[in-house]
Amino acid sequence: MKSYDFLILGGGSAGFNAARTAVSLGLRTAIVDGARDLGGLCILRGCMPSKTLIYMAEVLHLAQKGKTFGLKIPSARADMKAINARKKKIIADFADYRVDALTSGKFDLIRAHARFLDPHTVALSNGKKIHAKHILIGTGSKVSVPPVPGLAETPCWTSDDVLDLDFIPKSVIVLGGGIVACELAQFLHRIGARVTLVQRSPNILRDHSEDASCVVQKAFVDEGIELFAGTKLGKISGDSRGVTVKFVHNGKTITRRAAHLFNALGREPNTAALNLAAAGVRARPNGQIVINRWQQTSAPHIYAAGDCSGPAEIVHIAIQQGELAARHAAAVKKLKPVDYSLMLNVVFTDPQLATIGVLERDLDERGVNYLRASYPFDDHGKSILMEANYGYVKVLAEPKRGRILGAEIVGKDAGELIHCFSGPLAMRATVFDLLRAPWYHPTLAEIITYPLEEIAEEIKK
User: 309: how many CB neighbours lie within 10 A of its CB?
Assistant: First the structure.
């Protein structure tokens, strides 16, 4: 039976970066990954393929709006076979690079699935066993199937299927209003599908502010997506002609039919097959592993990172968590836990939605005093000439010195603009610090100065 200092279950973003860190610290390391294809969710079925397709749909959307800009573009249509081929080529390049790194020989790569036999031993699907001093669980997440009547029995797409489409579907009902549901619903609409989005919560993107979600929701409806929020799902059924979804909205029972159903009702930690109980690892009812600030589970020598432990399904967070776990296992001194006060989040809808730092609702719940200022995109020169009029920039700051606590941007390229706050937040900068910096005119980024100036004037009073 082989033995390792640091054994990693899962070769995605958390596991791969943990392995690199562990090896650099002298730990004998192995990754166990039994997935059909190596690379992890982000590269293969998440961030990279989805953003590739979303950007292509944005280019198509702008071409179709040519008349608005005084351009004569007779026709612009999606060629899904060509789009799919381009996506596959791009993702293959990313995946090949990751596979090369995983098979570089710096650590052992074991192509199998694992389950715990005891706190230090795992059994592999190839019949072998492995012993390890420290173990990191980085098995990610999987699509969940909530107990909605008929959902489990009705053929439906997951995000994997949508990302691999090579044809334009006639019509799609999208169940859910989270990030994946919203990003891919808009993609489907823009390539030419008739899309109905059915969301159970009162607003789409419920983890974000109501103000922000309402902007995206209005943009969707204006664009032609049929959207129902605040619903109660009823019976779902399917036959050879398509699918039928019944739900209650505003007290009325509504029925919608479509050629295809897309289940985007969320994901759940991929931990059910690990036999966590044998390792003494505690998990919540949904399978999410409970961790402390050092990524340790209830068994101190076992760590967890990424989607399987939370608190956010974000790649750069998973990387930070995996690297921290490796350093802690190697007994590196003067470690600092992941700083979630710098949490950065981006939704790649159009308009995009991005936040950083502390959210307004968190400050309200904690009873913290703060100053708030916002400025709309439809009153800003660069966004007006770009026909990018949806949204706003909002800044939250400490009321005495003006230290920036957080920011929220809904609008054109919000995912890029939010990084104007990344360095300043990490450096605990104030609104006055940012206003001392130059801001070029006319740029989208320049809009950020308006709420900064408003807060600065409030503090000076």
Answer: 25
Last residue of a domain, one of 279, 309, 338: 338
Please name every residue paired with 269 in a beta bridge, in sequence order, or none if there are none.
Answer: 141
* Alpha-carbon span 283 to 291, nearest angstrom: 9
Question: Which tens digits make up the pLDDT trace of 157-186?
Answer: 999 999 999 999 999 999 999 999 999 999
**Are 261 and 273 in a shared domain?**
no
Q: Does a structural domain hold residue 151? A: no
Q: Give the CATH number, domain containing residue 454.
A: 3.30.390.30
The secondary element (H helix, E strand) that includes residue 263 is: strand 260-263
| Contact criterion met (CB below 8 Å) for 17 and 338 | no
**CATH at residue 187:** 3.50.50.60
- Do residues 8 and 43 both lie within one domain? yes
For residue 152, being part of any structural domain is answered with no
pLDDT for residue 340: 92
Residue range 394-444, pLDDT digits in tens: 999 999 999 999 999 999 999 999 999 999 999 999 999 999 999 999 999
Q: How many domains does the chain have?
A: 3
Tell me the whole-structure pTM to 2 decimals: 0.94
**Alpha-carbon distances, residue 26 vs 85, 95, 295, 330, 438 (angstroms):** 42, 26, 20, 8, 45
How far, in Å, CA of 114 to CA of 330, rounded?
23
pLDDT digits (tens, 9 = 90+) for 173-226: 999 999 999 999 999 999 999 999 999 999 999 999 999 999 999 999 999 999
Q: Are 31 and 107 in contact, with CB atoms under 8 Å apart?
A: yes
